[in-house]
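Possible regression after last week's pipeline update?

I re-ran a chain I had predicted before the update to compare outputs. Posting the input and the new output here so someone can diff against the archived version. Not blocking, just want to make sure nothing changed silently.
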Amino acid sequence: MTHRWDVTVPEARAIQERFRAQVERRNRFGRIRRVAGADVAFTHRHACAAVLVFSFPGLDLIETGTAIAPLTFPYVPGLLTFREGPALLKAFGALRTRPDLILFDGHGVAHPAGFGLASHMGVLLHCPSVGCAKSILVGEWDPNTLANTQGAWMPLLHGRRRIGAGVRTREGTKPIFVSIGHRVSLRTAIRFSLACCAGYRIPEPTRQADIAVAYLKGELSARDKRRKV
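New output (post-update):
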């Protein structure tokens, strides 16, 4: 399942609407042995993507896939997947190891269109996925009632719908915001997000993916600078 990426803004919104219906909000997976973390960083002209595959539950690094793709879609809030998606799919295509679950540095259904990066990529890749974001795009919650203990969580609500959760992954740190991507329930998404933390606020797969894309972005920026000299 795929779609074109060279589309207009109205076409992108129509794609979101069409593919959103494919999101599965219940668990549909076997044993989880390999968990991937995925992230994207941007230069002025390019998207830099990294996907790191880890063993689970040991969280030993198995493989890294990276890719760089030119930016062809404008910056439009709510449609950032159309800037990130082409590079991410190239990075996934570079892997020899197929992950059983993917954690994305972004949102799943906790998104204005109900179809953020984790849901979009999960549907296209036919893979269980989870959104692990550092901040909220949409929804309401009461941070004052979240216990300051590792593993505490409370619902993120949009109207009367539960679209995600604020999750305390480490005592004394800000929560992350976990949401269903594809083929997992919210409770399962929370469970795996917590299980993938290695003493940090951010789950280790996405934390390492963030480090990898920062390095890739730096290398690309330095290469571009040398070309201008």
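Follow-up from reviewer: compared with the archived run. The chain has five helices and eight strands. Marking as no regression found.
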